[in-house]
Amino acid sequence: MDPLTTFGRDEEQAILRKAFADTARGVGGCVVLTGAAGIGKSHLLRAAVEEARADGLAVATRAAFELDRAAPFITLASALQQIEPATSAFDWIADTGESQFQTLDRLAGALEDFVAERPLVIAIDDAQWTDEFSALAMRELVTALASSPVRWLFARRPRQEATPGQQLVDRLIREGTPEIVLGRLDEGAVAGLCSQAVGARVDNTVLALAAGCDGSPLQLEQLMRALLNTRQLLIRDGVATVVGDQLPSSFITIVEQTLSSLSEQTRRMLEAGSVLHGRFSADTLARLLGTRPAALLPSLYEATSAKVLVDEGDGLAFGHDLVRKAIYGTVGGAAKALYHREAAVVGREEDRSPVEVAEHLLRSGRSTREAATMLREAALEVAPAAPSTAADLMVHALDVLGADDPDRPELAADTVGLLARAGRLERAQRLGEAALYTGLEPPTEAALLLGLAEAFKHAGRNRSAVEYASRGLSYPDVPEAVRARLWAVRAHALFYTGDLTGTDRSGTSAYRSGMAAEEYGAAVFGLTARTLAAQAEGRLDDALAHATEATEIADGIRGEAAHWHPRIWLGDAQAALDRFEEASATFRRGREESERLGTAWSTPLWHYYHAALLAASGRLDEAVAETDAGVKIAETHAAYALAVPLLAGQARLSVLRDDTAQAREYIGRMRHWLAEGITTAPEDATWAEGMLLEATAGPDAALQTLTVIYDAMPRRSLLLVQDPGAAATLVRVALLAHSPERAEVVATTASDLADRNPTVQALTAAAAHAEGLLRRDLGLLREAIDGYRGIRRPLALAAALEDAADATPDPVRARKLAEEALAIATDCGAERARRRLEQRLGRERVRQSAPPSVLERLSPAERPVAILVARGRSNREIAEELFLSRHTVDSHLRKIFVKLGINNRSVLARLVGDEGSNSAST
């Protein structure tokens, strides 16, 4: 460990020592070091890691480089493959052929298993250059492993450029990760550092000169070495004094002073090496200079002794990139071009990154077309794992070609698709619109429009998706396979703009074109759009038929058709028909298939629909965990269009649980994304806002917000399909807000829906409930109660019991109905209904004479998770045993920690202790 790192950083080191000590005790977490280039963050990181290693923690470290961005997963994978002490636990990473989703899931399990034996520190220097897939992985793993002894340490420079690594760190800080900002060294630290560097106490002449370095450790060290090398530092009686008149005054001058003390051969070697980024070998340097590696040994020794180069075991690197840049700035233009030309040749022969080779070609002043081709090939290679990086490469290639190059239109079409996939929609739109006016061939133009339509649909910008898909379909020469995909995207986008007829027609066209062109994924996606339209119109048997056919096609064809996961919509159609057991089995099988295929896009949807099923069944705590997990995944993968309905679900559940403050927070986040142009079904966003307003501001405010749902009936009845009990709530709100005509529309819609689906008991009960509430008809309310008793919708039953109690003249009978409703609400965790019913019954909750035990403080869904943690199970093992997703287990654990005021698994295990074992045995 370099002793220079200790000067002036006592407070920062204390923070890191505490963090590592916490990790040794089983507490996970993350720390960020932020500082300008040369301020000493890399030295501090290395010193901290050395202390962690000495204290017995395993460590995995890596410095990211700018070229990492073109090599997906290299940053994190390289760190884990160099873990100390050595282990084979992560050897599989190098050869994995899995999807991103599968790799992340497997890596989370491997890390859990590893840290069960030994706490781990993962330190990434220059984290702003982290590659896109590693950034995605770490964004998820920091949260997923928060309950395990993994300490993440990121050092980064403050930059304006929004690289994936920078976005990762910024997001972690926003979510509460502590940030240590390294400032300039104070006068005492400067004096200590200078004394350490020269091996003597320094006087005021040295300190006056050092003041020009503005407290930068790198510049101070370079200055002291320059003064020593040029013999401008006189040491007498243990005190160093500056002598001479020609003194270095800037960083570049300091580096030049250092170089001037080196031999000419060493200077030439360093000039050649300055064209290289990151680590490089002596062989590479020799080839650039046209000599033998052995001939460079004296120069390598001289350069490393002067600390201009450092030997990192697996290669050489400049002591700091600022030093490399300073040396590069001293190289003449002709020499630079020559070195870059040779570096491009060497890079090709050594199979180095195409991006690196292309950069050398560009800087050599030759072969711009060749460089553009290499950039395009590199972009297409990394696109599956790093679309944003791929888009940057393609934009760079476009810049290389220039505006009049004949290859530009096709390259622009590819770039538009990548920009759109990366979520950079405005840039994609501008470039795409410009490309459309350059005379593209019809297939290229159709592909460009399809890419824009799919990307805008994925981003939740459904109106724009409809526009682009419609434009693509207007061309006569569109290949049938492309046409099928355009119809499918248009169908789903139309649903979220409220056009149910258009949804069904476009879905039918997607199905027909897809089957004809053997584009089975489009056929499946078109059928699922028809499922949505049929549900919204109350044609539940049709919805089931479409979803069933889509699933049969996907199961039979497999391939891309299976990747659309029609079981998402099949399970929802089954739930709407009261076939809860079938729906649960469908969701379980579909989720397992999704994990096997590695299709991460579908994961939030599984959580969304499974949460809806759990909520309908009255299992509110489990539904909360599912929606929470879904939101985390959607936001991690920037799938904000899926985050919106999940946030709405969280808000609705919070209202039921009487946590209106939390509901407001979810609604606020949801509104943020809606303001960004995302569209969603009113049955999600509007219904959630209406529920919150009814609970906090009263029926008048709720009615005003819910007008769009009232006015869409009877044509659109999706809310009553998804939640039959909502019919009575809408009637109640309308009546209390003095709008009987709207209450009448809801009751009529519920009745028509029940008549068209006579086998669905929930709809029959809901119609009786709505009509009974509207007419204050006790007989109809009793019919509703009887109907709900036969199905698994306990909260709907509790609401019908409460309304029947209101309408019952016999106080004894009314109280009995209310008490039954109270028992159901209490059992389900519906706190708002429970408190209201307790007030009605004049009953106060019985206070416990003794404080509740640990398990009593947890919900029924959280208790088995806590017990299994106490038994030493990992999150992955708990998920398998309880038939949950790993993300749902993560959600339960986060909530358990908040409730108990703890922050790691070992403390939870100790708290549960014998209590968990006794509970499990009983």
TrEMBL record:
UniProt superkingdom: Bacteria
Keyword Nucleotide-binding on entry: yes
Keyword NAD: no
Record domain HTH luxR-type: where: 851-916
Keywords, alphabetical: ATP-binding, Nucleotide-binding
Pfam families: AAA_16, GerE
Protein name: AAA family ATPase
Annotated source species: Phytohabitans maris
Lineage: Bacteria, Bacillati, Actinomycetota, Actinomycetes, Micromonosporales
